[in-house]
Design brief:
The chain has 335 residues and is of the alpha/beta class. The chain has two domains: 19-113, Arc Repressor Mutant, subunit A (Orthogonal Bundle); 142-329, Vaccinia Virus protein VP39 (Rossmann fold, 3-Layer(aba) Sandwich). The chain has helices at residues 19-28, 32-40, 48-55, 59-71, 98-111, 115-139, 143-150, 153-165, 185-191, 202-214, 227-232, 252-262, 281-286, 295-304; strands at residues 46-47, 75-80, 83-88, 173-177, 194-199, 220-224, 237-243, 263-274, 308-316, 322-329. The strands form two sheets. The chain has a seven-stranded mixed beta sheet with strand order 6-5-4-7-8-10-9, sandwiched between helices. A three-stranded antiparallel beta sheet has the order 1-3-2. The longest helix is centred in the middle third of the chain and has 25 residues, at 115-139.
Length: 335
Amino acid sequence: MTSSSSISPIADDVATPDISAITALSKAAGDPLRMQVLQVLQQNAYGVLELCQIFDIRQPAMSHHLKILANAGLVATRREGTTIFYRRNLRNNNIDLQPLQQALFASIDRAGLSAGLADHQKQINQERAGASVEFFNRNFSRFEENQDLIASWADYGDSVESFLESSIAASGTAIEVGPGYGQFLGKLSQTFKQVVALDNSPEMLEQCQARATQQGLQNIEFVLGDTSLANQRGIKADCLSLNMVLHHNPAPAEIIADCAKLLATGGVLLITDLCAHDQEWVKQSCGDFWLGFEPEELSHWASLAGLVEGNSLYLTQRNGFRIQLRQFSAGSAAT
């Protein structure tokens, strides 16, 4: 009796990697400036003129590099009003390239951003933040009117309060970043021993404090500043709320990272914000910087900050906007 062995041919329908796509990605990865662009885009999106300012190069040159990165699937674009913003493409459409792309991003991030580029990036973010604060200082008396154009607290507040009740594990300290007129503070005040209301607009904070006083809320500290200031003070929270804040903020990923550091072990970050939409009028009328967010963006930024994703709830409003309620937790002390 004899035996024989043979090698079966590869079936015709088995997919093989696209060499041209691998070549395009490798070409895009082969330029130091393009790698630095990907570093800058790690946690934020920028327009071409902002990137020109960060890198101190002319627009035609920057546009050329961005086109190469886009063709390789390394960056994605999104129009916000009249500006096209570039951000990292979190998931390459070519499945075969996803592991290579993820490994590339991980290596770039470990390398770290140069001090000079980090300073230029910080300057851009500060300019953005200054414009946002100026808007709210100028329009503080119209805050509720502006919010009603998108979604009023009366439309979704009960859902947020129920979401809070199902999320908390400890009731020591809560922080609300950007509390507006304090619609959520009453519930937080009842639920937690101590509440910190944090806002970088003095006019908005004054209005919020006045309304809290009218309601007789006693256990709230009103702090003028941002999340970086709260970290400097060493505040630790069992619960931190970002209620309709991120779409006004020029660097949402940085805010989420700051919030992660503010959470006590087992603490919960609750995010209420708009899903991505195309209603550009909100930028002028309501001071929105971003036209909402894709859910996977919030998940990605929270993961980068070391947070664990929990429950989610999605609400459709009467005027066509969709609201996402998201829960993320610090399984161990955030670093």
